[in-house]
Automatic annotation (TrEMBL):
<feature type="binding site">
    <location>
        <position position="207"/>
    </location>
    <ligand>
        <name>substrate</name>
    </ligand>
</feature>
<keyword id="KW-0456">Lyase</keyword>
<dbReference type="GO" id="GO:0004853">
    <property type="term" value="F:uroporphyrinogen decarboxylase activity"/>
</dbReference>
<feature type="site" description="Transition state stabilizer">
    <location>
        <position position="77"/>
    </location>
</feature>
<comment type="pathway">
    <text>Porphyrin-containing compound metabolism; protoporphyrin-IX biosynthesis; coproporphyrinogen-III from 5-aminolevulinate: step 4/4.</text>
</comment>
<keyword id="KW-0963">Cytoplasm</keyword>
<dbReference type="Pfam" id="PF01208">
    <property type="entry name" value="URO-D"/>
</dbReference>
<dbReference type="InterPro" id="IPR038071">
    <property type="entry name" value="UROD/MetE-like_sf"/>
</dbReference>
<dbReference type="InterPro" id="IPR000257">
    <property type="entry name" value="Uroporphyrinogen_deCOase"/>
</dbReference>
<feature type="binding site">
    <location>
        <position position="77"/>
    </location>
    <ligand>
        <name>substrate</name>
    </ligand>
</feature>
<feature type="binding site">
    <location>
        <position position="152"/>
    </location>
    <ligand>
        <name>substrate</name>
    </ligand>
</feature>
<feature type="binding site">
    <location>
        <begin position="28"/>
        <end position="32"/>
    </location>
    <ligand>
        <name>substrate</name>
    </ligand>
</feature>
<dbReference type="GO" id="GO:0006782">
    <property type="term" value="P:protoporphyrinogen IX biosynthetic process"/>
</dbReference>
<dbReference type="InterPro" id="IPR006361">
    <property type="entry name" value="Uroporphyrinogen_deCO2ase_HemE"/>
</dbReference>
<comment type="subunit">
    <text>Homodimer.</text>
</comment>
<keyword id="KW-0210">Decarboxylase</keyword>
<dbReference type="GO" id="GO:0005829">
    <property type="term" value="C:cytosol"/>
</dbReference>
Amino acid sequence: MTKTLHDSVFVRACRGLPVPHPPVWFMRQAGRSLPEYRKIREGVGMLESCGRPDLVTEITLQPVRRHGVDAAILFSDIVVPLAAAGVDLDIVAGTGPVVASPIRTAADVAGLRHLEPGAVGYVDEAIRMLLPELGAVPLIGFAGAPFTLASYLIEGGPSRTYLKTKAMMYGDPDLWNTLCSRLADITLAFLRVQVNAGVSAIQLFDSWAGALSEADYRRFVQPHSARVLRGLEDAGIPRIHFGVGTAVLLGAMGEAGADVVGVDWRTPLDRATTMIGPDRAVQGNLDPAILFAPWEVVEREARRVVAEGRAAPGHVFNLGHGVMPETDPEVLTRVVELVHGLR
Ligand code: 1CP
């Protein structure tokens, strides 16, 4: 990694080092809130676009050019490595990932193949195209954590209740652990490709882990996520771990081996820091819905987030979850400018 990237405001904040201002990026900063994204995606399916290095490069750069964010995130999806490992799935517009034959039995789990790095060669290629374009702007690689990936595979698509997922977890813990162990292998292989290609940080998304109690998270989920995060320790780059509705899980998610814990808007960052401990940075946590309020409200809330983030050893400014498609992109740009002016 070049000295510039190692010294970037984003990586420094992840490490709890002094920075001139909090770095800013937005989850789902590349996506439907941008007219240039909607234009380039016209007639191209989501999975197809993730497999085309030219499109990945352009879409990843769009929010960097427009908003002046302090980090780029690779344009891809958490189900990309599953598709590359042979799972028959699609990303359906307006819905999300849909799996043709959900995984529910021991035979289904046994049929889940390992991810060969060559099967995601287009990700390696896209990152190598991106790095010179990004210059001093760090690139974040990412993957889905075993629980969140398992939820799509078992439910067959997005879920509100995770009933079938929990049925396997509680009803057949051995099968659950076998499945999550295979998913941890796939996730590690996918992240390793991105690390080898030169990303400056990784984010492990366990978006739906907030559906669990702390005890069940520690028992059924944390060991698998920990294997992924600790498996990347040798990479020497910041590891961010994020989920939604994880107020009671923040300590356990940090202990899984994260350098930075992502926090949603429900938990103030100063309170989150008390739960996470003094040796990890935090990321977050403006409510994405606040971006629809009058600017005075956006400004007040963004200032509050920055003030509360000072309780942590390091703070990466972000939303508490992804940018909503209807967001006015000009408000995002203004938020970046505002936070860059705050110390
Ligand atoms: O056609 C489209 O534009 C579809 C919308 C879309 C986009 C832009 C999907 C479908 N995925 C993506 C890209 C994506 N997915 C990124 C790009 C980088 C960026 O942030 O700019 C990232 C990081 C993801 C990760 C992802 N996919 C997560 C974890 C983050 C989160 O939001 O919690 C999850 C849960 C998914 C699954 C998924 N893919 C797409 C959708 C709509 C969903 C969620 C479905 C659900 O509600 O369960």
